[in-house]
Design a protein that fits this description.
three-stranded mixed beta sheet, 18 helices, Rossmann fold, about 35% helix, alpha/beta, nine-stranded mixed beta sheet, globular, about 525 residues
Length: about 525
């Protein structure tokens, strides 16, 4: 049996007394009752709650459909199936053909004995990253226990990935399948939070949506989408990656995937292919780009799915829309790491560059200004070509895009906070572990002790690491609760305007990526736009 504090809400809960509901192991939702895990480490976890119908059969390639009610009490003590993908992530469930009930979410809420103040609690909804192709809300570093101990109700979710979530499906007469189905799933999950989170102690009007990498860009997209308006008050974006895809690129990639799958590039042909077939065909297309050095941008880091700026579901690239004033009422916290792309190099997911000729071809493929490479060489004197490439690519894909997201929001009057994650283990030109992509996430969730994150952080956490995790968790909790993470917003006139997360390093002041301004100056003539074929 599990126990939980149920905050009084209209039509929910039983046995209210002195403003607080009776403790119960069962939570009421609009689709039926659910039972979670027993309280452990100060939090109750309710896992694998469906928020929409399985997106297969008649629902395949359609907008998410409301979940039909169930009878009795549904046991929610295990994570739900993950979306179709070929990835196998440490400690997380893996997808198996036949898994269809993939639109589920997980809730962590403070246990009754935590001494959390009465009243509805702020809510944090997490959208995982993974190049829109892999991952889930069930990864060990996304466990919401520590954030719940800090006074939040935490939600993580699964959404459609790869072709199922972002692939272009041609219209069949007037019956069209919407693009950006993965984003529509996220909106459906946020609607579930609006309608149900009070039963778990959360405040539906104090929701923060957060994400990292592709999840961060999804957050930025949601900030601009009409369907998400009013579903959250604040947003957290760590290492946002951009830009979005143009419709013609999505159509071009669909044709390549259909050809690899051996099916017609039509709605009927794609619907007739199994989810596993399209996962395999997508992997084959990616492999082809990896092996073709003349395939342009996608050769260097082949990502073939992402939000499509279709003009309807998503009107344009989110940074451009935010710069035009699409979301000044949403408070925003942005973070990126200072050595993003070293992780992608370490796991072998980007093409290796070791010569000036390759570096020049890389720059031309991305349309980088002629002065950019020389500027980076000046910032990294004596660095090998590989390091120049990783620094440029990390800033192109994550660092500069994240900075522009923050700057665009602040210029239109949005309350914006900016931070950079600079913690690395060891010093010198080749530290034991870099301040690379994803390394900040276990610190924010307070999960640096998880075995599965030791590769990311360079081994078992030190005392300084645990202290850093406490501070980063507190910043998220403070921002979700009050809109104040603990430092000045962008454009503030006093105090610290960019928070640098890292352990003490006497040489830190010489790192231009911590300051950021000298790096950003190199990008002033570069323009992001929707990716095209």
């Amino acid at each position: 049996m599990c126990s939980a504090i149920l905050i009084t809400a209209p039509g929910r809960g039983r046995g209210a007394k002195d403003g607080r509901e009776a403790l119960t192991s069962v939570f009421d939702t609009t689709s039926g009752q659910v039972r979670g895990r027993a309280a452990a480490r100060g939090a109750v976890a309710v896992l694998g709650i469906p928020y929409a119908e399985p997106p297969f059969g008649a629902n395949r390639f359609r907008a998410p459909q409301p979940r039909r009610p169930w009878s009795g009490v549904r046991s929610c003590v295990d994570f739900g199936p993950v979306a179709p993908q070929s990835a196998e992530l440490p400690g997380a469930p893996r997808w198996s053909p036949g898994d269809e009930d993939v639109l589920s979410l997980n809730v962590w809420t403070p246990a009754p004995d935590r001494g959390i103040p009465e009243g509805p609690l702020p809510v944090l909804v997490w959208i995982h990253g993974g190049a829109y192709t892999f991952g889930s809300g069930a990864q060990p570093d996304f466990d919401g226990t520590e954030l719940a101990r800090a006074g939040l109700v935490v939600v993580t979710l699964n959404y459609r990935l790869g072709f199922e979530g972002f692939g272009h499906v041609p219209a069949d007469g007037e019956d069209a399948c919407p693009p950006n189905r993965g984003l529509l799933d996220q909106i459906a999950a946020l609607e579930w939070v609006r309608d149900n989170i009070a039963a778990f102690g959360g405040a539906p009007d104090r929701v923060t949506v957060a994400g990292q990498s592709s999840g961060a860009t999804a957050v930025a997209c949601l900030m601009t989408m009409d369907g998400a308006r009013g579903l959250f008050r604040r947003a957290i974006a760590h290492s946002a990656v951009g830009p979005c895809f143009a419709p013609e690129l999505a159509e071009h990639l669909m044709e390549k995937v259909a050809a690899e799958a051996g099916v017609p590039a039509t709605r009927a042909g794609l619907t007739g292919a199994s989810a596993g077939t399209l996962v395999g065909a997508s992997d084959a297309v990616v492999g082809g780009y990896r092996n073709d050095p003349h395939s342009g941008r996608v050769h260097w880091d082949p990502v073939i799915y992402g939000p499509v700026a279709d003009g309807h579901v998503l009107r344009g690239d989110p940074v451009a829309l935010i710069a035009a004033g699409a979301a000044p009422d949403v408070e925003l916290l942005v973070c990126h790491t200072t050595q993003e792309y070293w992780l992608l190099d370490a796991v072998g997911s980007c093409a290796e560059i070791t010569t000036d000729e390759e570096l020049g071809r890389f720059a031309r493929d991305f349309g980088l200004p002629d002065t950019l490479l020389e500027g980076y060489r000046a910032l990294l004197p004596g660095a090998p070509v590989r390091d120049i490439h990783l620094a440029v690519y990390g800033d192109l894909m994550f660092g500069e895009y994240s900075n522009r997201l923050a700057a665009s929001h602040a210029r239109t009057g949005g309350r914006t906070f900016l931070s950079r994650f600079a913690r690395q283990r060891g010093s010198g030109p080749q530290p034991a572990v870099y301040a690379w992509h994803c390394a900040d996430v276990p610190f924010c969730f307070g999960n640096v002790g998880e075995e599965s994150v030791r590769f990311l952080i360079g081994g078992a956490p030190t005392r300084a690491d645990r202290h850093l995790a406490e501070r980063m968790t507190a910043a998220w909790a403070g921002f979700a609760a009050t809109g104040d993470p603990g430092w000045d917003p962008v454009g503030g006139t006093s105090g610290e305007r960019v928070r640098i997360w890292g352990t003490a390093d006497p040489a830190a002041g010489s790192d231009p990526w911590r300051d950021g301004e000298s790096v950003r100056a190199l990008w002033r003539t570069f323009t992001y736009g929707p990716e095209r074929p």
